Write the structure tokens for this entry.
Amino acid sequence: MAAHSAHRHADARAGWLPALLPLAIFLAAAARVPASAAGAQRVVVLDWVPSLGVSLNLNVDGLSLLFVLIVSFVGAVVFVFCGVYLGGHPHRLRFYALLSAFMLSMLALVLVDNLVALFVFWELTTLTSYLLIGFEHDQAAARANARQALLVTGAGGLVLLVGILLLGRMAGSTDVSALVARGQALRAHPLYLPALVCILVGALTKSAQFPFHFWLPNAMAAPTPISAFLHSATMVKAGIYLMARLHPVLGGTAAWMGTLVVVGAITALLGAFLAMGQKDLKRLLAYTTIMALGIMTMFLGGRTTPTLTAAMTFLMVHALYKSALFLVVGTIDHQTGSRHLPDLGGLGRAMPLTGLAAAAAALSMAGFPLFFGFVGKEIMYKGALTEDLFPDFATLAALVSNALMTAVAAILLLRVFAGRLRVPGDTPREAGAGMWLGPLMLGGLGIFFGVCPDWVGRHLIEPAVLAFHPQADQIHLKRFFGFNEALLLSVVTLVFGALAYAGRGALARLIGALEQRPPFSPERIYARLLEFTAVFAAHHTRIVQNGSLQRYLAVIFMAVVAGAGIPALRAGFNLPAIDPILETLALVEILLVALMSAALAVVVAARTRLLAVCGLGVVGAGSAMIFLWHGAPDVALTQLLVETLTVIIVALVLLRLPPLPRPLSSPGRRVLNAAVALAAGTLVAGLLLAVGGSELDRSVTAYYEAYSYTKAHGRNIVNVILVDFRSFDTLGEIVVVAVAGLAGLALICGGKPCNR
Amino acid sequence: MQILLPLLVGAMVAVSIYLMLCRDLIRFILGLVLASNAVNLLILAAGRAVVLPPPLIDAGQRVPGQVVANALPQALILTAIVIGFALLAFVFVLFYRAYQALGTVDTEAMRAAEAESLEGNGEGGP
């Protein structure tokens, strides 16, 4: 028992070692922060496929650096957390490998300058995320949800590739730096709209925007640390990253602004609204993530400095509080065995440190003053009010979703951590340090940045905004922006949030009813599509691959006849003049061909095996005669030998098979077979005649004739070709014979040792 | 022979394809043997079937003293004959074993891997 507990203890610390990798990356990135804040940009040149203009150039600017810092920091926290969370899970090594692979792909995604390379890493994050969501692969739901995430984001990725290729065609380069330089011309290009649509479909599927949002709550089948890492802080923000990165290339037009503001606002409202009705804490967080991603999308739709600053600030605010909250839910799940909201309550006293982390994160989420979330919300309202296209609409959307967010934060904090203790099992204990340390650090950063927003603004947010919005009028973040409209809106948000919290029961019932019978369900469309694909594939297989050898062969022969025959007919057969050839015909030749034709007829019509084999023998021997007649004694000899052997073997095999059956196919089928056969025979004969009518290039033969004796010292040119000039071919041929013999032997022995 | 040989090859191809399209393995074997022979003759015809002396270099000479038959197709045919024979030998054994295991020579009835439930007994025809 003691040994077991010691083992568990060692396992619990297993996460510290893999966490060194993200930690090292974080420190390296943090070292670049001062330079980046001073406006420096670093480019590392790495060629990949120069012939296609695809490079692996790394571009470390403010935007990349912000993402690298988030990915590596949350990564380190999640790695440590997993050590405890997974405990002695049998596949934890695979887990760390996948998680590291994901993290490195994500880092590469935000660092590469070339869009094709970005696409490659984009798809790598999709693949690793598929494997991570389906980590508990013995559960059917996990597999189905992993597949859903893969199909939705993978399909979006393919559309993105089309968009990237369109951009490459328009600009002559897929390097972001080159695209930015040509932004003006690209936005006026006739292909701008198709390219924009394709790229936005990729970005919006990845970032779970309406109507593709449904995969994200389902992806909660993943272990909770995965959700904290992939589905709140990093992967789902890849779409946000792409939209920010391409903002100077594609952004600022009416199409861009209209799409992003409307889609983002709908997503934000939908996510915030649906979050209120969730009972499962993870699904609840997933919907708030959808809301957050919608807000970021909406603000990236703007083109003024305040809106874009709001997007980047909220990105960071959200990454900090949401990953902390996910980890807190993971801790609750781990310690109490439940994450069902009605089952839980009063955990704060039993798990004080986790409760503290949850409080810091939730207050930031609610946007209380002195928390980073407050700064984020202030700048958000400032941005929404200066939105170009629909400022009122954006402000309203931000206001409602923020109010609902406040209510959700209150539910998380007050229902789960405050009040009387309520758990399904025994009184829970505080989790190990590996579990509470990370969330506490993330929550603490939320307070630190809330108290000193100036520092984070100058060092992280402003360089990030400058990277894709190089205007001089940067917004400096402040702890308090003064008494203005934004502050008023913040107060209104808190009041509305309190009202929504008070009315949470009615809201939850309404949402429950709506979820039972949704007016419009993209998820159902997805399910229908999947079903249709399966039915179509089955139907298709029944026709194309029905297991009938006869049908396969008929299709193959018909394809050959059509494929070779139609072009030949188009080009016209160049048949030789027949009269002079007829005059040179020898009687021997006519007799030989007549004999062989008769033998062919015998083979077709034969009713007994012996007769058919005799016919075959005559045809084979006749072939040998033809070779002899045309100056090929070696070939004739070989043909005669092999033909004799073949006939003997055929006779032997046929004797062991049943008698020749009457034709099995129906008469109609036989007519069709005969038609296919005749068409093929006619085609071969026609092509061969046409070949005979064309000029023969004897240069290769002339080479062999000239050097057969002078270089290879042989007088039989055919032999010299086989054993000298083309001796490797002959060796290969011998190998084929040997392999066929061995395979035949194995077949006869049927896997048992052959000692008979 | 320049006109007869192509016709003969065409006839052999037609007969071999017809036999291979039959539903029983025995006729398939016959068709396969014929196809092998037809291809050998096809190579000969493509290299011009002209009546000429064999491609040999007489003693005392360094190159053929006269126009000889085309050596290249002959070398190709020799290779084709041997490879074709290896293929046939293997296919014969394979068919024999298939018959032993499944007890039928009807290719439509050989459904160890795919159940009959997939409908269509091949008579529907493409």
Observations:
- The beta strands of chain A are 42-44, 47-49, 54-55, 58-60.
- Residues 78 and 225 of chain A are 6 Å apart (CA to CA).
- Residues 1-7 of chain A have pLDDT under 50 and may be disordered.
- DSSP finds 35 helices and four strands in chain A.
